[in-house]
Write a structure and sequence with these properties.
single chain; alpha+beta; Ribosomal Protein S5, domain 2; 21% strand
Length: 111
C-alpha cells in the first residue's frame, strides 16, 4: 500500500498537474507527469463511473497501486504522476495493465 506521503491528495494538486504536466496517452491509461521537487514520487489514480461499477473501479485501482509499488524503485524520484483509467480498462487483465503502464512510463522517461 502506498503511504500518505506517496499520494496526491487535494483537488488543487490534481488540477495543477492536469494544467502544467505532460500528458502521455496509453491504451488503458492516460498518464500525467510533472516534476514535484521532492525526494520521492507521488501518485494519483482516477477512475470514472464509465469504467464500471465500484467493484471494477476499485479492482483496477488496487492493481495499479500494486504495479506502482513494484515499479517505483526503478523510477527516478521527484515526480507527481496521475493515472486516469480509460473507460474500456474495466475488461483488461492484470498483465495488460502492467504492459500498458510500462509502455507509458517508458514514454514518460524519454520526454
Amino acid at each position: 500500500m502506498l503511504g500518505r506521503e506517496f499520494r496526491i491528495t487535494t483537488t488543487q494538486e490534481y488540477n495543477n498537474i492536469y494544467k502544467n504536466g505532460k500528458k502521455i496517452p496509453g491504451r488503458f491509461i492516460i498518464l500525467y507527469i510533472m516534476k514535484n521537487h521532492l525526494d520521492r514520487n507521488r501518485y494519483g489514480f482516477v477512475t470514472s463511473v464509465k469504467v464500471g461499477k465500484a467493484v471494477i473501479r476499485n479492482r483496477i485501482k488496487r492493481q495499479l497501486r500494486d504495479l506502482v509499488h513494484r515499479m517505483d524503485p526503478s523510477l527516478p524520484p521527484g515526480y507527481d504522476i496521475v493515472m486516469i483509467v480509460r473507460h474500456h480498462a474495466g475488461s483488461a487483465e492484470y498483465h495488460q495493465l502492467e504492459k500498458d503502464l510500462s509502455v507509458v512510463m517508458g514514454k514518460a522517461q524519454h520526454r
